[in-house]
């Protein structure tokens, strides 16, 4: 017969090994979290633009470097977001007001709907048409939201000609306020 204490010792060794592996894994995750801490926080005014490369709805590409030399307004939104729908007339008015400025001001919609690209396009295109949203759209896979620290929408990021973040707006913002901020950046 085998000694019952042998099974008990084996159980203790296995249990200790499981605890040690769990602690090691937790320490590794903590280290990764501390190394990447800055990427988990929202951007703030004065921060440089996070680096990104995305595709626009027309198939062309857009990177953070492409925003230099113009004032850019990135609008994070979704079709299911009621507040986003209320904000769109303001965004459309801003886009139309500065359209004659020859590309000095660009508006980019950053769509946060979920689903496969074809499903999202089927939601976004009729929605955008009904709201008069003629500006470029980005179907965000989460890359931009993470880069900018966006957790709630609508969320607007105003970027100056040098590629620095100048203003952030969570929720609705008045057209007058946006115009004032954009005009000040154009005058710099």
Automatic annotation (TrEMBL):
Pfam family, one: Redoxin
Annotated source species: Enhygromyxa salina
GO molecular function term, any single one: oxidoreductase activity
Record-linked InterPro entries: Redoxin, Thioredoxin-like_sf, Thioredoxin_domain, Thioredoxin_ResA/DsbE_sf
Name of the protein in question: Thiol-disulfide oxidoreductase ResA
Residue ranges occupied by any Thioredoxin domain in the UniProt entry: 43-187
Domain of life, source organism: Bacteria
């Amino acid at each position: 017969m085998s000694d019952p204490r042998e099974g008990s010792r084996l159980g203790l060794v296995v249990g200790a090994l499981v605890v040690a592996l769990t602690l090691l894994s937790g320490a590794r995750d903590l280290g990764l979290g501390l190394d990447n801490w800055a990427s988990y926080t929202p951007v703030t005014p004065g921060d440089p633009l996070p680096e990104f490369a995305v595709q626009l709805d027309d198939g062309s590409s857009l990177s953070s470097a492409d925003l230099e030399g113009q004032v850019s307004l990135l609008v994070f939104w979704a079709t299911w977001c009621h507040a986003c729908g209320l904000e769109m007339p303001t965004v459309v008015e801003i886009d139309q007001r500065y359209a004659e400025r020859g590309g000095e001001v660009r508006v980019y919609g950053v769509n946060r709907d979920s689903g496969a690209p074809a499903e999202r396009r089927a939601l976004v295109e009729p929605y955008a048409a009904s709201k008069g949203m003629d500006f470029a759209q980005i179907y965000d896979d989460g890359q931009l939201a993470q880069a900018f620290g966006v957790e709630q929408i609508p969320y607007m990021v105003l970027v100056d000609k040098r590629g620095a973040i100048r203003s952030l707006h969570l929720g609705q913002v008045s057209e007058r306020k946006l115009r004032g901020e954009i005009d000040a950046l154009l005058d710099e």
